[in-house]
Design a protein that fits this description.
The chain is an all-alpha fold. The protein contains six helices and no strands. Helix 3 packs antiparallel against helix 4 (110-134). The longest helix has 30 residues, at 24-53.
Length: 192
């Protein structure tokens, strides 16, 4: 007589929820809402940078990153519509703040603009990695989308580093402030 080993059950979204955590549905809504808001903000940041640096040598790089962010935004716009997830009520704020962050850092120079990219993308890498771990086999398509976009955000971070981001004046202070603001925007957008 042989004893069969128990068959491992595939991980499902929400399996690791703790008492008091949002429901599976609420968690998914928050993910899509915050991702749509974040990608909207990223497009606005790059739009601001392009408004200031659009004629410089870095313009093709900024255009490439903007195009990827637009693809990300379009994907989350579609998912929000399909799943009936309302956008964040803070979107008008992100419209202005994203552009101002992009234009403001670009006014400090190309390296400061790249420092902004590095700081934002490092936070987004962490954010998307967290989401990827929470999504199970029942949300494989969403998990794969999040991972694909995470890898593209890492590409943007690496471009920023290769473009001299760390040589920007006050890099540590600038990066720290942008990371703090990005984390706050994530928290607020997922909830409101």
């Amino acid at each position: 007589m042989t004893i069969d080993a128990p068959i491992a059950k595939p991980k499902m979204t929400g399996d690791d929820r703790m008492p008091g955590d949002p429901s599976r549905q609420k968690m998914l809504e928050r993910m899509i809402r915050v991702n749509q808001a974040g990608e909207y903000g990223a497009v606005r940041i790059y739009t601001g940078q392009m408004a200031v640096l659009g004629k410089r040598a870095c313009a093709p790089t900024l255009k490439h990153m903007t195009e990827q962010e637009v693809e990300h935004l379009n994907t989350f716009n579609r998912l929000a519509a399909e799943r009936r997830v309302r956008p964040t009520v803070l979107q008008p704020l992100w419209h202005v703040a994203g552009f101002m962050l992009g234009a403001g850092t670009a006014l400090l120079g190309e390296k400061a603009a790249m420092a902004c990219t590095v700081a934002v993308e490092e936070v987004i890498d962490e954010h998307y990695a967290e989401q990827r771990e929470k999504l199970g086999e029942d949300e494989k398509e969403l998990r794969d989308t999040v991972e694909k976009f995470r890898l593209e955000e890492i590409e943007h971070r690496d471009i920023g580093l290769a473009s001299g981001a760390e040589q920007a004046p006050g890099y540590a202070l600038l990066s720290g402030a942008i990371k703090t603001g990005s984390r706050l925007a994530i928290w607020l957008s997922s909830r409101f």
